[in-house]
């Protein structure tokens, strides 16, 4: 019976911890999502430029 009580206790404790979470509002979620999307775009451009640069250098060397 212990193998049944432990999962039940785990889910009760997890639910209790989730009641203590303060969730972000819509404005904060939209703002942080926008920041993440902009950061991903900037990093994608940066990685693409570095990839092209290193590819050309390797092309010259090889």
Primary descriptors:
elongated, 62 residues
Report on the architecture of this protein.
The protein has 62 residues and is an all-alpha fold. It is 87% helix and 0% strand. The model has no long low-confidence stretch (mean pLDDT 94).
Summarize the structure.
This protein is an all-alpha fold. The chain has helices at residues 2-19, 26-61. Helix content is 87%, strand content 0%.
Radius of gyration: 24 Å
Mean model confidence by pLDDT:
94
Weakly predicted, low-confidence segments: none
What is the number of helical segments per DSSP (H or I, 4+ residues)?
A: 2
Layout of strands and helices, then pairs:
Elements: H1 2-19, H2 26-61
